[in-house]
């Protein structure tokens, strides 16, 4: 799957109309310069050769150099990646907490307050663009109330020493309290916006799977034994609903990455999402291609991890 | 005879429509969509001002002359929202039509033929499907450049696999059913088996996917134009208006972001309510299981 994805990215970037070399140099460059540039970037070789070279490079961890900054793209992305991971983790946690608890509580009483509000919430929040929610937060908490910072990851002078590149963890490891506080304040709004949007999907999914589980015989048996309803829901039903939920959540991580692009742009969060958008603005095609390839790697990695966890959690799954 | 049965079925359908919540949902969704459709078609008559001409002072707050205020260039926000419906719907319908036109035939053939062809095509489609849609659309839109057709195409690419998967899986299970075998035994050609026996059976689910995708397509379009990859300004477009409004957020001009956002939300809400209701209506046993 990984190779197919890479191949498609490659095709999209090379075959679609719009010559990357022309776009980089502008329409007025003399023919000789264009030809030289083409040769330099290897665009004059047959397509399959180009793809072979590209694959080899990626396996070596080389994504080429940015046409704009001339720095290796892999390095540039490595600088930005921790910010995206940090944002995604916290967004995911927000979505997880809302999704699991609300989803599980909603199944306690069919048609109850939590059930109905949960359904309305899920449909409604699904219709909200993440960048709009983000802006609303920025306006309300940042401009109106002046409680929280609305852009960036941390105030410039407080940056903690780099260990993982994720400021919250770095400042925790180095016990840098001012930095920890500042970074936490910065991450609240973006992760909340991102997490709330994704939570609707989680909520629906948890609810759907739980309803399915609660109609099974083992739940009936647990109830018949007089086990408390809370325990039936969280220890019996939720545990068994975990495998299908996990699989879909793995897929949702991909959606989370996409949402992160918009969230990062909204909050000037310096992750790979805003890196991608910035590179598009400058038509830096090697960098765009490299970033998309990194996304492909992440997607494939997540699906492998989900499979492994599934196999660990559910003894029936064997590969 | 034909007409009688049709109107009879329609009447029965309408009565069923209002019997439970899903019907009401579909109806509310439909009403919202109709409003937007009318807005889009009759935009020149409904909009109080030209959306790309200065119509008042810049940054004026909502008032009697400008219900939703004006932008940094003095454009009327309400007029831009009304005209924006046109662009949003145009791109969404175009994108979904292209996606369906690619996905449905490929799904039909792939599911029916099976074998290596099916496996390779499925692998490709699954690869696209698993990739974050918006990021793929960003990449394609970045290469194609701005414009209605280009944006629609880049959105279409990410939704084609949805149709392909739905159709392919259903066809694969339908093709061994008795009625298909009977048709084959009577000497029907492959083409007519696909078109007259299998296609009508998969259409209901296609319609649901279609209306669901329209919601997603509008959302994706808004995202693309928010990132500056959509229609080139000053054409009225909700996503672009939002990103433009964000630049002035610090100055407390809330109307520039509130109203375009509400427009996106209500139209997407309309599509999702409609598709949700339609889903339970058309495939009553496929939807959520009820206790």
TrEMBL record, chain B:
InterPro entries associated with the record: BP-dependent_transpt_permease, MetI-like, MetI-like_sf, OppC_N
Q: Which UniProt keywords apply?
A: Cell membrane, Membrane, Transmembrane, Transmembrane helix, Transport
UniProt record, GO biological process? transmembrane transport
Q: Where in the cell is it found?
A: Cell membrane
Q: Which residues cross the membrane?
A: 24-47, 87-113, 133-160, 194-215, 253-274
Q: Which GO terms describe its cellular component?
A: plasma membrane
Q: How does it sit in the membrane?
A: Multi-pass membrane protein
- Classification via Pfam families: BPD_transp_1, OppC_N
For this protein, the record's Gene3D superfamilies field holds: MetI-like
The family database entries (CDD domains) matched by this protein are listed as:
TM_PBP2
Ranges in coiled-coil conformation: none
- Main subcellular location: membrane
Family per similarity comment: Belongs to the binding-protein-dependent transport system permease family.
**Protein name (Swiss-Prot/TrEMBL):** ABC transporter permease
> From which source organism is this entry?
Kosmotoga arenicorallina
């Amino acid at each position: 799957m990984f190779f197919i994805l890479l191949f498609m990215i490659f095709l999209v970037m090379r075959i679609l109309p719009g010559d990357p070399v022309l776009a980089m140099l502008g329409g007025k460059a003399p023919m000789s310069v264009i030809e030289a540039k083409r040769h330099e970037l290897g665009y004059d070789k047959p397509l399959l050769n180009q793809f072979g070279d590209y694959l080899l490079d990626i396996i070596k961890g080389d994504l080429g150099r940015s046409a704009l900054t001339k720095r290796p793209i892999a390095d540039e992305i490595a600088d930005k990646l921790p910010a995206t991971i940090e944002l995604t983790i916290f967004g995911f946690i927000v979505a997880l907490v809302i999704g699991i608890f609300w989803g599980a509580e909603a199944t306690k009483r069919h048609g109850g307050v939590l059930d109905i509000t949960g359904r309305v919430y899920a449909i409604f929040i699904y219709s909200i663009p993440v960048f709009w929610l983000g802006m609303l937060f920025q306006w309300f908490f940042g401009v109106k109330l002046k409680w929280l910072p609305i852009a960036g990851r941390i105030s410039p002078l407080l940056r903690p020493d780099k260990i993982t590149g994720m400021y919250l963890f770095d400042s925790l490891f180095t016990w840098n309290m001012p930095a920890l506080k500042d970074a936490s304040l910065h991450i609240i709004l973006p992760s909340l916006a991102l997490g709330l949007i994704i939570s609707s999907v989680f909520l629906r999914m948890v609810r759907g799977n739980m309803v399915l589980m609660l109609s099974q015989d083992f739940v009936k048996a647990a109830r018949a034994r007089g086990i408390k309803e809370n325990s039936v829901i969280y220890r019996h039903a939720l545990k068994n609903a975990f495998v299908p939920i996990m699989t879909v959540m793995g897929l949702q991580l991909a959606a989370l990455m996409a949402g992160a692009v918009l969230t990062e742009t909204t909050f000037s969060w310096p992750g790979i999402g805003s890196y991608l958008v910035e590179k598009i603005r400058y038509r830096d095609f090697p960098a765009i291609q490299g970033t998309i390839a990194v996304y492909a790697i992440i997607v494939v990695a997540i699906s492998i991890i989900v499979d492994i966890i599934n196999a660990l959690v559910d003894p029936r799954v064997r590969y | 005879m034909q007409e009688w049965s049709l109107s009879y079925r329609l009447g029965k359908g309408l009565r069923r429509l209002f019997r439970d919540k899903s019907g009401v949902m579909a109806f509310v969704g439909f009403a919202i969509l109709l409003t937007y459709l009318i807005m889009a078609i009759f935009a020149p008559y409904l909009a109080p001002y030209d959306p790309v001409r200065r119509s008042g002072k810049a940054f004026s707050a909502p008032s009697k002359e400008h219900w939703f205020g004006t932008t940094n260039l003095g454009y009327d926000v309400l007029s831009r929202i009304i005209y924006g419906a046109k662009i949003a719907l145009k791109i969404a319908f175009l994108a979904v039509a292209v996606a369906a036109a690619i996905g449905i035939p490929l799904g039909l053939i792939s599911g029916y033929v099976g074998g290596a062809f099916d496996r390779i095509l499925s692998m490709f489609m699954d690869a696209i499907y698993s990739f974050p849609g918006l990021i793929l659309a960003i990449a394609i839109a970045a290469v194609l450049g701005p414009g209605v057709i280009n944006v629609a195409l880049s959105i279409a690419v990410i939704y084609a696999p949805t149709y392909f998967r739905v159709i392919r899986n259903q066809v694969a299970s339908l093709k061994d059913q008795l009625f298909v075998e009977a048709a084959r035994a009577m000497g029907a050609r492959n083409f007519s088996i696909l078109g007259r026996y299998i296609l009508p059976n998969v259409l209901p689910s296609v319609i649901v996917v279609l209306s669901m995708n329209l919601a997603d397509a509008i959302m994706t379009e808004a995202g693309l134009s928010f990132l500056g990859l959509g229609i080139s300004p000053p054409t009225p477009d909700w996503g672009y208006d939002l990103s433009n409004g964000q630049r002035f957020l610090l100055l407390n001009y809330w109307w520039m972001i509130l109203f375009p956002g509400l427009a996106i939300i209500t139209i997407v809400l309309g599509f999702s309510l409609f598709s949700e209701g339609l889903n339970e209506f058309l495939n009553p046993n496929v939807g959520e299981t009820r206790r």
